[in-house]
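Why this split exists: single-chain examples teach little about how molecules sit against one another. For that reason, every record in the complexes split bundles all components of an assembly together and asks for one structure covering all of them. Below is a record exactly as it appears in the raw files.
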Amino acid sequence: MAAWAHSHGMDDHLDIVFAALADPTRRAILAMLLEDDMAVTDVAEPFEMSLAAISKHLGILTRAGLISQERHGRVKWCRLEPDALRDASVWMQSFGQFEAVNLDAFEKFLERELRDAPAD
Amino acid sequence: MAAWAHSHGMDDHLDIVFAALADPTRRAILAMLLEDDMAVTDVAEPFEMSLAAISKHLGILTRAGLISQERHGRVKWCRLEPDALRDASVWMQSFGQFEAVNLDAFEKFLERELRDAPAD
DNA sequence: GCCATATTCAACCGAAAGGTTGACGATATG
DNA sequence: CATATCGTCAACCTTTCGGTTGAATATGGC
């Protein structure tokens, strides 16, 4: 089980992951990191915005668990962490394939969603 | 022009879809609509917020293509539209398969060294 | 026609998102 | 030591988000 599940509900984590994915700059960053790990400055280079803005985006991606950042000297390397994306992907597939046979995972998902919803 | 900049039409749509999914109320609504089509008032019933707020949420889900709304008399029925979710899921799976690409660690190491090299 | 019901619209509000700039701490280099 | 580079922080600004309330616009039932 993923580390974030200990301190947050799945719901909170999905909030953060989907919000992180909702920005085109951040998705472009993920696409860049798909090819290779990169330093913060190199990530920022192709974008027409300040380094501080990119640094914020990277913080958001890190908090969402979508990337990890590791410091080596004064350079901070950014690495893609596909696990969080896989989790959200699984969530979405439970909708896209709800006609299919795999109702087990979906059943558990639905239970969780309904319990977490502001009910009665 | 970078390779990741190719998908421009889809990019805007992904903005809207992921932003729509980033709210727990809206995800709960999607979960409810999995079971059955519902009228707006019935969708709003379990939530502790105004009907107008739910109406806004449904508008956002509709603009994202995640649901459709059809008016019958004075009742507006909401139906899940899993296609948009499937699209976003496909986008995410391309990242989930990151490991399948099996990038060579040595190659990454080499590129890192070259980028760090003070020569030129 | 009259009234209740279903849904949206418009105006407003506080908080959060996404950007800027300038200063700053830390690290490498000469 | 001096200086350039890497990255973040703090303060600020504007726009968007998520919610409220009250009025408005159908539509259905009697």
